Amino acid sequence: MNTFGAPPSPAFGGDGLLGLSQRLPPQNPEAEQALLGALLANNKAYERVSEFLAPDHFADPVHGRIYGAIQRRIEAGQLADAVTLRAEFEHNGLLDEVGGTAYLGQLLTAMVGIINAGEYGKVIHDAWMRRQLVDLGEVIVNRAFGAEPELDGRQQLESAEQALFDLAKDNGSDGGFVHFEKALATAVQHAATAFSNPGGVSGLSTGLRDYDAKTGGLHRSDLLILAGRPAMGKTALATKIAFGAARSILRKARENDPNAIPRGGVAIFSLEMSADQLATRLLSEEARISGDRIRRGDIMQRDFDKFLEVSRELQSLPLWIDDTPAITISALRTRCRRLQRTRGLDLVVVDYLQLMRPAAGTRPESRVLEISMITQGLKAIAKELSIPVIALSQLSRQVESREDKRPQLSDLRESGSIEQDADMVMFVYRDEYYLAQRQPKELNFENPQKLHEAMEKWQKDMEGAHNKAELIIAKQRHGPTGTIKLFFEGEFTRFGDLDQTHDGGGYGD
Prior knowledge:
By secondary structure, the chain is α/β, with parallel strands linked by helices. 48% of the residues lie in helices and 10% in strands. It is built from 18 helices and 9 strands. The chain has helices at residues 17-22, 29-41, 61-75, 82-92, 100-109, 117-144, 153-171, 180-196, 209-215, 234-253, 275-287, 291-296, 301-314, 329-342, 367-385, 415-421, 431-437, 448-465; strands at 223-227, 266-270, 319-322, 347-351, 389-393, 424-429, 468-476, 482-489, 494-497. It has a 9-stranded mixed beta sheet with strand order 3-2-4-5-1-6-7-8-9, with helices on both faces. Helix 11 packs across helix 13 (301-314). The two termini are 48 Å apart.
């Protein structure tokens, strides 16, 4: 199928590419003249086109220049008519370039009523958009014929999709005000959802009790950043959340029909681990069988039977994994759109941010700018598809140089853009990991008694931190910050709720 309507063969002439190039680009000079006449006759007509029409949207550059002068004067609170524009163009030496006094007067004869000004503006804008599509089509054709040999076919496709998305994003929505009554009704609906759900969860449940209680779950259009140093368990916590969300979606779909197939699900983009590695980790967490033992085959028959049993239970979960390495933001957007259209989509998890690439064909000047483009793209996906997006992120090494290793917002790599675009920033931290590295060593103590005291204190600290983790909410645009205590099983890299009402702690799902 030919997406852009180009001819099926590269033949030139007739209806081929040469025939396309000989056509006049989409334009409507009569509509441009009529609108300019209406604006000159009554400046109030500008209110009907000011939100979406710009000088560049006019096919005739003379008309664009006249519209730009009208725009500047009206927005400066000045009168814009044939007399004031003639004086301005005479002062700038541009009167002849816009056709002189006679042409400004001629525009007045082509005027339309103020009521129709908005419709004429839309005709002009639509013609501009179709010209952009023609230009885009020419770029795509030229690239396909080898104009930019550094881009392979897949990269060209991603670049075309990105350009189409940018055109639609910048010019495809009407925008404008939403009456407070409508916004109020939506807010009341969200509150009613939270009131009717256990624990006051208005968003998508993560399966982590204390997290849902503090945040209300995962909310639509939010970009959430989950960051941490290596070995803290970022991927394990993200997959726990994805798992909990998928279970919540399945449970809700099967409230009335136990065989129902849910419309919606969770997409995990695993840029670091392959799909089967991630599946092994998920099975290890759920079956509580060490992933290392699974890989080495060091398991008993009963363990393998449990492994199979858990896999049968989990195979119906609405969970999809994409393990494409170094995926671009445009490719990720396309796949999310496709999945939402065909299966439904409620949550996206990206592991991890720094392994992504910006859109094909773009060449950011710096790594900071590149990360900024990626985070802005992820936020745009969250808003466009109305779903939460969780992106994992690395932390800089400056954490290791502090006495208190708990992360801060300034520890985010390329922190400015990430912190700015995110609706929530969370850090996962395990004190047990750092305490284990500070075990007292005999060679550092001359006095055996001091060594014994230091060892006792260290062991007490280790017992207090054993199987415990912290989820630090450093930024939450719509709620409080703070720390959530979690349970962590190192053997299975598994997170859960921390039950502090029982001796030794525990977990609950």
